[in-house]
Amino acid sequence: MKRYSVFAVAREALRYHQGWGRAWRSPEPKKKYEAIIIGAGGHGLATAYYLGKNHGLKNVAILEKGWLGGGNTGRNTTIIRSNYLQDASAAIYEKARSLYETMSQDLNYNVMFSPRGVMMLAQTQHEIRGYKRTAHANALQGVSTEFITPDRVKSLVPIINIDGPRYPVLGALWQPRGGTARHDAVAWGYARACSEMGMDVIQQCEVTGIHRKNGQVQGVETSRGSIECEKLGIVVAGHTGVLADMAGFRMPIESVALQALVSEPIKPCMDVVVMANTVHGYMSQSDKGEMVIGGGADGFNNYTQRGSFHHVEETVRALIETFPIISRLKMLRWWGGIVDMTGDRSPILSTTPVKNIFINCGWGTGGFKAIPGSGWAMAELMAKGHSSLTEEFGLNRFKEGKFIDESVAAGVAH
Ligand code: FAD
Ligand code: PYC
Description:
There is one protein chain. The chain has eleven helices and 18 strands. It is α/β, with parallel strands linked by helices and about 425 residues long. The chain is globular and about 65 Å long.
């Protein structure tokens, strides 16, 4: 396996700060590919990677209208956990979490996976019941979580105020093997591995149309010309509705902005991830020392990649209540991403009404954690036409009413 020196790693970091889009020279698109993936976010790149690695399909192009990971993949708060309620969800999220454990070795690229533990606070009786139920479900699914007491919460997070003025901490759902990873490194690692397999990762290449004949995909129209393909994967998160429209079908998806912010760096003070869903805010500390903070989703559909002021106020108020020591912190950066929400808060990995077009979307506020599992499953679906991991996440569930309700596990207010 190729090893990279500390200089190579530094060069990559420098390239990132100069704008990876300029540093990574995109190849010219070929006339035809076996498979095209639209969207070089984590899910699109992971799909391409596992198409090559697990199914030997390497004549693949990944088309990206912006730059690698410039969508939600590079905008999220990097929380990784698999403490979902339903069996189908636990299977794909736990597959993903376990793949994160070895991702740096698999890709030979340090994605800085840090299994520091994720804690979801229970601050109402309703949350206690909900999280205890999830812990029981997780035990049956083989996912290691437990419901812990307020004293244990305090011992794991000394800076927390468990006697908050509005909602004292009554316990928490604790997943010790949950954690964080460097989000853009996940995109870069997969992209480099795809490129090394001979795939074309083409940035600044916007798909503007989808060619079909006799109900089957023929190729795509892009800002860099027409490209033919045998199979097409649409993996564009908040732009799913736009792409589905080009392919002639509608999706049960709404697009809204979700936002996050980071503080100035401070000394290490919290080595787990805390989500406080009732007061609503979540926080972890990055390796640089910044407090990484996430807020809620906008209450109206939109395509703006920035946050709304009222969320900053609500989020910061909630977190100061929970962690009084951060009250004097200065905030450095603030941004938003466009998340793709389904009614049952579960993703869609599915065939579509057009033959050989596959779709992967609906990860909403929580798809970073799912990237490797989703890519693994989507690649299997595209290569073989079926995958045990995607079976229950098909589009037909919206017709048949077989929803996979994950509104509690989704955690983020929307
Ligand atoms: P994206 O990364 O958005 O990639 C889609 C790509 O498609 C984009 O790069 C876009 O430019 C491209 N594209 C769109 N249209 C076209 C076109 N016409 N032609 C070519 N390319 C196109 N999840 C977690 O698990 N944990 C978290 O802590 C977490 N926090 C979050 C915080 C915030 C503020 C946000 C916004 C999201 C958060 N998420 C979190 C959710 C997570 O980021 C997403 O679910 C995940 O990144 C989606 O990845 P993706 O690859 O599907 O989409
Ligand atoms: O899904 O864990 C999550 C999450 C945290 C913040 C945004 N999404």
